[in-house]
Amino acid sequence: MQNNWNNFLKIIMGSITNQSFQTWFAKLNYIQSDDEKIIIEVPNRFHYEWLDSKYKDTIKEGIKQAFNKDLKVQYNVVVNQGAIEEVVNQKSSLIPKKYHQASKLNSRYVFKHFIEGRGNQFAKAAASSVADSPGQTPFNPLLIYSSPGLGKTHLLQSIGNHILQLSPDIKVIYVTSEKFMLDFISAIQNNKSTTFAQAYRNVDVLLLDDVQFFQTKEQTQEQFFHLFNELFQQGKQIVLTTDRHPNDLTHLKQRLVSRFQSGLIVDIQPPDLETRIAILMNKANNEKLDIPYDVTEFIATSITNDIRAMEGALVKLLALASLTKQDITIDLAKRVIEDVLGQEAIKQISIKRIIAAVAKKYQLNEKKVVGKSRQMELVLARHIAMFLCRDMTKTSLNNIGAFFNNRDHSTVIHACKTIEEKINSDAGIKKDIKDIKEQLL
Q1: CB count, 10 Å around CB of 192?
Q2: Number of helices (H) and strands (E), helices first, in the chain?
Q3: Which residue in 302, 384, 370 sits closest to 342, CA to CA?
Q4: Cα atoms in the 13 Å half-sphere on the side-chain side of 189
Q5: Is 322 helix (H, G, I), strand (E, B) or coil?
Q6: Superfamily for domain range 351-440
C-alpha cells in the first residue's frame, strides 16, 4: 500500500505545478487503507479544507490510478501536538470550533499572532497590561483607534481570549457597535429593555468594536452612556475601538467622548515594511504555506496601509496559483495586486523598490547606493535611483533627498539633470534605465 501511495504522489506531481505540490501534498502522510477508504493525515484543518475544495477531483482520480479502485478519502487533522481529529465529508464537520460562544470571541485572535512593530508597540503593551489585570489598571477605559485594517479588532479580541485563558469564570463579551444597536432595537420592539440592560451590565469585561458607528444614533448613545457608567462604577474593564480619535467623532455626544478620554487612548500607525513582511511570513507559517520571500516582499511593498487587505491578497494569490496550477511568482502576485487595488496601484512604485532594483542591476549594496561614498559606480547608481524616484513616484524632491541620507532637494535636481543628459548621449545608460523600469513595472 505504501508503494501505491508513492505512485499516487508521483501522479499528483505530474498533474500540478511543483510549487502547488510542495505546498499542498508534500506534507501529507499515508495512514492506512482498505477496500473502501483511504486515511490521509493533514497538518491542519485549513489544509484539509483547501484540498477538499480545490483538488478533490484530482485526488480522487490519482487514488483510482494508484490503488486500482475508487476509495473514499478520509482525512485526519493533526491538532494539539499530535492529537488526531477525524474529519469526514459532512458539512457539520467543516465548521471549525473557533468561537467562544458566550463571549463571541474568535480564538484565532491572540497576542502571540499579533506582530509587533514600531507603529503598534504602545497599543499592544497597553492591551497586554489590561488583559493581565482587567479593571485593576489606570487604563479603564482603554480606547484603541486607527484606520481600518491595522489590527484593532485583533488586539481587542486578544485581550478577551487572554483573560479567559487565565480566568475562565470571568464574564467577557465582545460585541460590535452595530450588533449592540441591533440588540437594543430588538429589545425595544419586544419590550425587553430591562433584559437587554441586565445582560450587558452583568459582565466583567466589555469589548466594544467600532464605536464610531454610534454617531447620530442618539438613543443608542444614551443607552451606552448609562451602561458605561454602571460598569465603570463597578470597576469593570471597558475596552473600545474606533477608526479615529474620539475628538474627531463629531456626531458623538460630548459627555460620551469625555468618558472615553477619562482612561487611556492609544493609536495604531500603519506598519513599516519590515513589520508588514513579518506579518505575511507569520501568516504563511501559521498556515504551513511556503511563499517565496521576493513575493512576500512585493505584496508588503505594494499594500502599505491595510493589513487585512495585505493578508487577503496573500490568500487570493494562493487560490489563484492553486486553481490555475501555476507557481507563485512576482508576475502572479502583480495580477493579484492589480485585482485588489486596481491597475494604478501597480504603478505606485516605492523608493525602496527602486533602490533595490538599481542596486541589483549594477550588483551594488543598497545601503551604499544611498550612502555618502563618492565612488564613480555608486554615484552613477545613486543618480539613476534619484531620477527614477522622481520619474516613477509621487514623492517630493525633499522626501527623495531625505531617503538618500538626508540630501538636499537641489542634489536630487542635479542628479535628475545629469541622468537626463546621459540618456540623450549614452545608449548604455538609456538601456539600463529601460531595463530597470521594466523590472519595476
Answers
A1: 14
A2: 21, 11
A3: 302
A4: 6
A5: helix
A6: DnaA protein, C-terminal DNA-binding domain (1.10.1750.10)
